């Protein structure tokens, strides 16, 4: 038989859950923003730019963060890793020095972060569409900031996207900067696997890898374990 205290406890949990949902709903109605760029006296730097905006790329609404101390500086478009690992939420914490020299643009690619949409299909996430989005965003930034070319930087997955885009549209960019550049992903995983096995042997910790047949091809589910051993993730 259910006691009165149990009923009260359940009602409290229900009310707490409804309250949290209400707070999330209210928060979703508040427009996101990025802090203005200020000088040492606290005044807004007149030539600066600090905006979080939505743009249409490949027929899909996507979001970019644009920050820089002087909008006349060269534009630097940063391609995040993943796929699906956006960085708008924290990018400005480590890009402040870059903002002194560039107009830095961080973009949540289709399907990631603020650019995520319900109902996306496999066709929406084809590589050629990411390349086309990058090209369209590049042209948007060139026009908006009156630049003939921009700089392009990519990290991890973004380094692949950056290489493919710069290769297809070389005249759009002053330079491409690869960070954690991916060249041959399957070969990289194989080398990491072999390194992890050697380290396990050297540290007398081979039981971690007992399920692995050393003569077999690289297991599909092993990369996360490899990265923990190799210190790369």
Note the gap between the termini.
Answer: 51 Å
CATH domain fold name of the largest domain: Rossmann fold
Number of strands: 6
- The class by helix and strand makeup works out as alpha/beta
CATH C-level label of the largest domain: Alpha Beta
Q: In percent terms, what proportion of residues is strand?
A: 15-25%
**Form type:** globular
The mean pLDDT is 83
**Uncertain stretches:** 229-233
| Order of adjacent strands in the largest pleated sheet | 1-2-4-3-5-6
- The helicity comes to 25-40%
Number of domains: 2
Provide the CATH superfamily of the largest domain: Alpha/Beta hydrolase fold, catalytic domain
- What is the overall number of helices? 6
Question: So, CATH architecture of the largest domain?
Answer: 3-Layer(aba) Sandwich
Short description:
The chain is of the alpha/beta class and 233 residues long.
Your description of this structure?
- Helix 2 (96-99) links the parallel strand 3 (75-79) and strand 4.
- Helices cover 37% and strands 18% of the residues.
- Helix 3 (127-144) packs across helix 4 (157-168) and helix 5 (185-202) crosses helix 6.
- The chain starts with a helix and ends with a helix.
- With 233 residues, the protein is of the alpha/beta class.
- The chain has two domains: 49-179, Alpha/Beta hydrolase fold, catalytic domain (Rossmann fold), CATH 3.40.50; 185-230, no CATH class.
- Strands 1-2-4-3-5-6 form a six-stranded mixed β-sheet.
- It is globular.
- The chain has helices at residues 4-29, 96-99, 127-144, 157-168, 185-202, 223-230; strands spanning 49-57, 60-68, 75-79, 103-108, 150-155, 173-179.
- It is built from six helices and six strands.
